[in-house]
Amino acid sequence: MIRLAANLSMLFNEHDFLDRFAAASQAGFRGVEYLFPYAYAPDTLGELLAETGLEQVLFNLPPGDWEAGERGLASLPGREAEFRDSVAEALRYAQVLDCPRVHAMAGLLPADADQHEARAAHHATYIENLRFAAREAAKVGREVLIEPINTRDMPGFFLSRQAQAMAVLEEVGEPNLRLQFDLYHCQIMDGDLIRHLEQQFAAIGHVQIAGVPERHEPDVGEVHYPALFECLEALSYEGWVGCEYRPAADTRQGLGWGRDLGLLPG
Ligand SMILES: O=C(O)C(=O)[C@H](O)CO
Ligand SMILES: [Mg+2]
Description:
Layout: E1 3-7, H1 20-26, E2 31-33, H2 42-52, E3 55-60, H3 80-97, E4 101-103, H4 115-139, E5 143-146, H5 162-172, E6 177-182, H6 183-189, H7 193-200, E7 204-209, H8 225-234, E8 240-243, H9 256-260
Parallel strand pairs: 1-2, 1-8, 2-3, 3-4, 4-5, 5-6, 6-7, 7-8
Ligand LPHNJNCV binds next to loops.
């Protein structure tokens, strides 16, 4: 059975962040994910989860200076110490929030450098950093995820293709380092969604969805999500499916797709 998690960075923006938990619970979600918890004390978020009966299913490591445009530290040469601190901080929150997995965003390639050389340096840093993160996470029973992100939304993002992610997972070789498979990004960069799900299934630690190309509700646009849910069911996927889209209008009114598929209460 597909289990939907509400992405509180994108859904329920009609409410202040802390009020989005109750809104998601009232709409029938049982899990939540969001970009970052760090603006709040972990206990505050933990109490909200307990009050609303929601599970925390995912959040990201501190990404560097987000406001200045940074999008993760994992592949950035020279930022290894900061990356290691970010792993410790994320795992501290993961334990309080009882969150089984955290996403380590790869970061951006420098626009003004020789791309071949920069890629090689980022790749080497990425492998070492991810190995470190996975080993630290394993000590406290958590997984670390990597996610290919499309370069139209995030120009220069280091990890952008499904095959690149699979090669990285293999090279790092840590069993708790897994794939965050965002079907929205995959459709834009690689397509062939069902075959990618099937071939990469063993590596998948989390799935995310959105309509393509506008990143609105999953029943809007070029991707036929009922077929992808059937595929995940056929593969006996037991993880969460994060609803990481920007509602076209009111979040709750836009959840009809989930109710129609029997994935959210009517
Ligand atoms: O943008 C996405 O698709 C994500 O899942 C990331 O968490 C963004 O940071
Ligand atoms: Mg995503």
